[in-house]
């Protein structure tokens, strides 16, 4: 049976075709270039809202304060974004590592397949959503930024954030549902950004997650980074597991596959033997797991020999419960208010110094997410970490 997909534009088409044709059966996907060459930039049609052409080269605002002002100016006639506070758990480290996890909602899905019945269509327009997304990122200015459902990587997020000093990699889904939406901007996927003033890239890989040795449609980006101020390494991953009920077994298998890959990456950089658990390189794993805390994949992470814990449990009084929600939306099938997003960390090697609180039900409003105040149906998670001293 022939599958019909909508055409994509320019360089994104060639990149996607090359990925899917050459690596359709492999778990390791090729790394796309961190920076576009001039021809790729021309093919990708950089978003004119942020990038202006000067002498044939794309130029992006180099100053985060100026870009934030530009976003606020573009949104001045709409409700302000949610006011959220950091909950400080420890004495602030002089050089904390700020990590942001966010499913930003793919533009093609927001306007097409996701059917947010209480969200005004105007609030879903890319012409304003892009400002809301960048405003959220710039307001917290993370050192490590993990995004899912990214379908405007090459024309917006990569060039704009590169202009602010971020390096990154992007891994598209092999069969992105975005491609079924007319006028799409290419496949969605996971993107991992890091601040080059804080970290040096040692290693990077794009992974197509498997279940029982069978490649699936879900992916992850993994990077080994060295902190410039301390010289210590940290292994960071971003992923987006299979959605919807009935697929709990698949999410569990995908989570196990990701943990296996991460253990191998850490062992490689520790120089340890296969099967050993390295105690020198901590892990940070961010993602939309599409799994509530009672699911098997959550239990696999919490009981992993890698010594992981979920940072957002720190918001609860006893430190044992996840937030009541990280996503809150209304679709034709009904209202969904639940926790699906996590920042996992190596609890023996990293300390959670601060956690950004969740907006209240009153702030979110009766029509839930997305809205004029918030660009996505998922809330961003932001944490400050510091390295623990060895005992």
From TrEMBL:
- This one is known as Nocturnin
Q: Signal peptide location in the record?
A: none
Annotated family: Belongs to the CCR4/nocturin family.
Chain ranges of the Endonuclease/exonuclease/phosphatase domain: 100-378
Return any one Pfam family short name.
Exo_endo_phos
Which keywords are on file for this protein?
Biological rhythms, Cytoplasm, Hydrolase, Magnesium, Metal-binding
Q: Name one GO molecular function term.
A: metal ion binding
- Which cofactors are required for activity? Mg(2+)
State the Gene Ontology BP annotations.
circadian rhythm; nucleobase-containing compound metabolic process
* Region span, Disordered: 29-57
Output the InterPro entries linked to this UniProt entry: CCR4/nocturin_mRNA_transcr, Deadenylase_nocturnin, Endo/exonu/phosph_ase_sf, Endo/exonuclease/phosphatase
One GO CC term of this entry?
A: cytoplasm
């Amino acid at each position: 049976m022939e599958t019909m997909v909508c055409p994509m534009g320019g360089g994104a088409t060639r990149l996607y075709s090359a990925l899917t044709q050459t690596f359709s059966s492999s778990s390791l996907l090729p790394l796309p270039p961190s920076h576009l060459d001039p021809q790729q930039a021309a093919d990708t049609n950089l978003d004119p809202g942020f990038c202006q052409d000067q002498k044939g080269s794309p130029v992006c605002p180099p100053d985060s304060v100026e870009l934030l002002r530009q976003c606020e100016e573009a949104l001045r006639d709409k409700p302000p974004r949610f006011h959220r506070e950091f909950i400080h758990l420890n004495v602030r480290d002089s050089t904390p590592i700020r990590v942001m996890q966010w499913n930003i909602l793919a533009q093609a899905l927001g306007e097409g397949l996701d059917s947010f019945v209480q969200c005004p269509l105007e609030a879903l327009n890319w012409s304003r959503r892009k400002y809301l997304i960048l405003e959220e990122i710039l307001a917290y200015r993370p050192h490590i930024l993990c995004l899912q459902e990214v379908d405007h990587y090459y024309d917006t997020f990569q060039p704009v954030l590169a202009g602010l000093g971020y390096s990154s990699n992007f891994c598209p889904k092999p069969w992105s549902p975005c491609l079924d939406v007319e006028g799409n901007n290419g496949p969605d996927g996971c993107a991992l950004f890091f601040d080059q003033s804080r970290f040096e890239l040692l290693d990077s890989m794009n992974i197509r997650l498997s279940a029982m040795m069978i490649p699936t449609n879900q992916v992850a980006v993994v990077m080994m980074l060295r902190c410039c101020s301390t010289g210590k390494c940290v292994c960071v991953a971003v992923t987006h597991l299979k959605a919807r009920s009935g697929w709990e077994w698949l999410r569990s298998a995908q989570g196990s596959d990701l943990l296996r890959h991460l253990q191998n990456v850490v062992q490689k950089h520790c120089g340890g033997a296969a099967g050993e658990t390295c105690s020198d390189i901590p892990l940070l794993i961010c993602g939309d797991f599409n799994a509530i805390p009672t699911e098997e994949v959550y239990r696999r992470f919490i009981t992993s020999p890698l010594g992981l814990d979920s940072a957002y449990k720190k918001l609860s009084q006893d430190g044992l419960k996840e937030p009541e929600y990280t996503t809150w939306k209304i679709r034709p099938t009904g209202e969904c208010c639940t926790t699906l997003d996590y920042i996992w960390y190596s609890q023996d090697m990293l300390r959670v110094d601060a956690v950004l609180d969740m907006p209240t039900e009153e702030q979110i409003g009766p029509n839930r997410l997305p809205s004029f105040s918030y660009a996505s149906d998922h809330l961003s998670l932001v944490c400050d970490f510091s390295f623990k001293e060895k005992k």
